[in-house]
Amino acid sequence: xxxxxxxxxxxxxxxxxxxxxxxxxxxxxxxxxxxxxxxxxxxxxxxxxxxxxxxxxxxxxxxxxxxxxxxxxxxxxxxxxxxxxxxxxxxxxxxxxxxxxxxxxxxxxxxxxxxxxxxxxxxxxxxxxxxxxxxxxxxxxxxxxxxxxxxxxxxxxxxxxxxxxxxxxxxxxxxxxxxxxxxxxxxxxxxxxxxxxxxxxxxxxxxxxxxxxxxxxxxxxxxxxxxxxxxxxxxxxxxxxxxxxxxxxxxxxxxxxxxxxxxxxxxxxxxxxxxxxxxxxxxxxxxxxxxxxxxxxxxxxxxxxxxxxxxxxxxxxxxxxxxxxxxxxxxxxxxxxxxxxxxxxxxxxxxxxxxxxxxxxxxxxxxxxxxxxxxxxxxxxxxxxxxxxxxxx
Length: 393
Prior knowledge:
The chain has 393 residues and is α/β, with parallel strands linked by helices. It has two domains: 207 residues, Rossmann fold, CATH 3.40.50.2000; 181 residues, Glycogen Phosphorylase B (Rossmann fold), CATH 3.40.50. The protein contains 15 helices and 16 strands. Strand 10, helix 8 and strand 11 form a beta-alpha-beta unit. Helix 1 crosses helix 15, helix 4 packs antiparallel against helix 5 and helix 8 crosses helix 13. The longest helix has 20 residues.
């Protein structure tokens, strides 16, 4: 028996060596499809190697740095144009489009209308809703973008999103529910969890605690509040913020201006280095901005904290809050103020045995329910159903 050779093109601005939810998710999808015998080519905007295993990679630099919201949108637009020109002349049986930018769905639509190609859309964030709530775009623009998104979804073979709450947002905005499948984000459980968890030593004094935030510094998460919380815990905890985003430069100035000596900003780092930092930390933290659409977010960074055996401090509502509560993984803070968050941290640090229990709960829950490899298999099954792939003997 052998598999019919099928060519799949995947377009995603983010891909390794970049870290973050989109890069991690698309890499796991491409890896699973490649292991199933498909010929996979990824078109991405991140510089790096031109091959990972059997996966071919076309690197399409946008030539801009995302130092502001405007430059980020400009970079996304340049990538969209370059990806369209590249995919236009690329032989494929199926196109997978990761829509981190509202206009990315146009790519799939164009290939369908021009060449009759099938496409699967992956929509994993509420970018339009956030831009509207942040008043970065007006109601008319938001309405137009939502209608365009609905059209891209309707024309797709399937659209994959990452939480049931986000599917609800999409359908309430007019998208066709039968087109949408939910595949939750996962964590690399085998990689993040220490082989010998007992060898990890917890600090004995509260002032030696290390609290980590790892992820984007942009629209959705609120590292500003984390930095303000750090100032209140000077001498009791050290904060490490790892990642990038258009708000990072301003955040750096804020740390210096407020003379917050117990906070360190690091650039985005690779998977291997990040997991080692997780193993040395005491607590993982995340704060979501106060928005209606925050309920749809299941933060991948929180899954990674949990997979690393870290207890979690989470300030926000929705799917991530429910995850932390259900797993018994940490403390959910309803009021997103530095004072309330700092009190939750001090409460957690006051009981080291409880912290260890929370950490064990975290790891066990993620390993059981949010394995990235299992989520990639769910996605691959959707793709195979679209392709109607058959085994030939």
